[in-house]
Write a structure and sequence with these properties.
Blueprint: H1 9-52, H2 66-89, H3 99-109, H4 112-120, H5 132-154
Protein name: Lipopolysaccharide export LptBFGC system permease protein LptF
Transmembrane segments: 12-32
Keywords: Membrane, Transmembrane, Transmembrane helix
Length: 157
């Protein structure tokens, strides 16, 4: 107590409590943010591995069978949807993150024959059903657009 009879101890305790609360909120926010980022990276890595499982083991090339190629392209498109959904759902925690960083991680996890095929952006397979060709072409274009910036950064020239 000071000479005026005013006790500063409770006020000091309140200030210290407020500071501790702010520090706890800050740490909690960044912990959740790190978990969200890690979960997104994990989901994209799983999708990339899903693409890679369709690579022909003998010659390590992109498969030209319609169902395998379609599965690879579909997995790439699912990765785009996952990324968009995660950014919409967790925008509070991802406000400073850029989608491109996640796209780069996904791209680097892909087998090189897949990234090369998507880079060429030409449908080299003959679909079993001719009506599928424009659909697969559009999907290939979407996959190309999704990976285009990563491709320009990491492509072996």
């Amino acid at each position: 107590m000071c000479e005026t009879g005013f006790d500063f101890a409770p006020w000091i305790a309140i200030v210290i409590s407020i500071i501790a609360l702010l520090v706890a909120l800050y740490v909690g926010y960044y912990t959740i943010r790190l978990q969200v980022i890690s979960a997104i990276e994990n989901k994209l890595t799983i999708k990339a591995k899903e693409c890679n499982k369709y690579i022909i083991d003998d010659d390590q090339k992109f498969p030209l069978q319609t169902h395998y190629a379609s599965a690879i392209i579909s997995s790439i498109l699912y990765a785009t949807h996952i990324l968009d959904l995660q950014f919409k759902t967790y925008n509070v925690f991802l406000w400073r993150s850029k989608k491109q960083g996640f796209k780069d991680i996904f791209y680097l996890e892909l087998h090189t024959s897949i990234s090369d095929y998507v880079h060429r952006n030409q449908l080299e397979l003959i679909p079993d059903d001719p009506t599928l060709r424009p659909i697969i072409n559009r999907q290939l274009q979407d996959a190309h657009d999704f990976l285009e910036e990563s491709d320009s950064k990491f492509r072996f020239k």
